[in-house]
Amino acid sequence: MELLINHKSASPADNNAVIECRDLTKKFGNFLAVDRISFSVKPGEIFGFLGANGAGKTTAMRMLCGLSYPSSGHATVAGFDVYRQQEKIKRHIGYMSQKFSLYDDLTPLENIQFFGGIYGVPARVIKERSRELVRSLGLEKEATKLVSGLPLGWKQKLAFAIALFHQPRIVFLDEPTGGVDPVTRRQFWDMIYEAAEKGVTIFVTTHYMDEAAYCNRVTIMVDGKIEALDTPASLMQQFACDNMDEVFYRLARTARRKDP
Amino acid sequence: MRTLRFILQKEFRQMFRDKTILAMMFMLPVIQLGILPLAMNLDVKNINLAIVDQDHSTYAQKLISKIGASGYFRIVTVAPAYKQALFTLENGTADIILEIPASFERNLVREGRQPLNITADAINGTKSGIGSSYLLTVIRDFNRDIRLMSNGQPVASPAGIEIASTAWFNPYERFTWYIVPGVLVLLLTLVGGFLSSLNIVREKEIGTIEQINVTPIKKWQFILGKLIPFWVVGMIVLTIGLLVARLFYGIVPVGSLILLYLLAAVYLVALLGFGLLVSTISNNQLQSMFIAFFFIMIFVLMSGLFTSVDSMPAWARSVAAFLPITHFMKAVRMIILKGSTLGDISPILIYESLFAIGLNALAIWNYRKTQ
Question: CDD domains this protein is in (chain A) (predicted)?
Answer without folding.
Answer: ABC_DR_subfamily_A
